[in-house]
Design brief:
binds N-(5'-phosphopyridoxyl)-D-alanine, 15 strands, D-amino Acid Aminotransferase, Chain A, domain 2, 9-stranded mixed sheet, alpha+beta, 27% helix, D-amino Acid Aminotransferase, Chain A, domain 1
Length: 295
């Protein structure tokens, strides 16, 4: 079965799936995206991801190019045409193609909508089973990290630097020395008194949809979340640490800057949250959460 992608109204074979050279996403990073996991045929946290997509667009003064129901159909149709049940779904919306100019193009300019699906083996994800090692690096992003824009160069640079240093990922650190988040995930630590600590919602981080589901899981499992910023020094002393995202789900962090976290193995609370999250996605734990910016 040839792989296909949805591009501006058409399902195209991968070799032909492209956007115009003057697409503003290409020239200005003038676009937003979402990544949604499809796990055993269930679109994990689809509601929350679409909530956030609409909010990212509105912050950049863009509309949804198609309505929510149409987008839900297009995602499923991409999965069906690619014969995928375990996959990542990538949605990208830009302000469209127009002669290069910093000001916005005429309002009637059609936006670009691209949907790509890719196979993703959530059950065989070794990172989730073994945990990952991270390195802290300076956060050099712009000041509106709450918007999920396609301007990902800083994240690509820190990820590359981390990988070149022999670890799996970077946790970024702001100019005051506090951890913001992972290159493409939210960062969490668990303290000795079993509290889950993660940075409060602000313009400094992207509020994860997976994080929002973890808030629900925590409240149902008597786990306390403390929203506050923390520094690498505190993270080194944590009993457990993990990252959360649509593809990595809940991935244990077993080492930060060469310091083993806890006993250097994925922790019990992290694994419990992962199990609860998988059960929630399988539809065994009630309704999907809605996502709000909180700002
Ligand atoms: N990234 N923070 C950043 C900077 C991210 O890029 C992501 C997700 C998250 C977690 O958000 P969520 O739980 O909604 O996936 C936090 C996606 C997976 C990516 O860029 O591939």
């Amino acid at each position: 079965m040839p792989r296909v992608a949805y591009v501006n109204g058409q399902y195209l074979p991968y070799s032909h799936a492209s956007v115009h050279v003057e697409d503003r996403g290409f020239q200005f990073a003038d676009g937003v995206y979402e990544v949604i996991g499809c796990i055993h045929g269930h679109l994990a946290d689809e509601t929350g991801h679409l909530d956030r997509l609409e909010r990212s667009l509105s912050e950049l003064k863009m509309d949804m190019p198609v309505d929510r129901e149409a987008l839900r159909f297009l995602m499923r149709e991409c999965l069906r045409r690619n014969n995928l049940k375990n996959a990542g779904i990538y949605i990208q919306i830009t302000r469209g193609a127009a002669k290069r100019d910093f000001k916005f193009p005429a309002p009637e300019t059609p936006q670009s909508l691209v949907i790509i699906t890719f196979p993703f083996d959530f059950d065989g994800n070794v990172g989730v089973v073994n945990g990952g090692r991270v390195k802290t690096l300076a956060d050099i992003r712009w000041k509106r990290r709450d918007i999920k824009t396609v301007a990902l160069l800083p994240q690509a640079l820190v990820k590359q630097e981390a990988v070149e240093a022999g670890v799996d990922d970077a946790w970024m650190v702001d100019s005051d020395g506090y951890i913001t988040e992972g290159s493409a995930s939210n960062a969490w630590i668990i303290t000795k008194n079993k509290k889950l600590v993660t940075r409060p919602v602000s313009y400094d981080i992207l509020r994860g949809v997976t994080r929002t589901a973890i808030e629900k899981i925590a409240s149902e499992n008597n786990l306390v979340i403390e929203e506050r910023a923390f520094k690498p020094g505190e993270a080194y002393e944590a009993v457990e640490a993990f990252t959360s995202s649509a593809t990595a789900l809940i991935t244990p962090v077993i080492e930060i800057d060469g310091h083993a976290i806890g006993n250097g193995k994925p922790g019990d609370i992290t694994q419990k949250i992962y199990g609860e999250y998988r059960a929630y996605v399988d539809g065994l734990r009630g309704e999907q959460v809605h996502w709000e910016s909180g700002l």
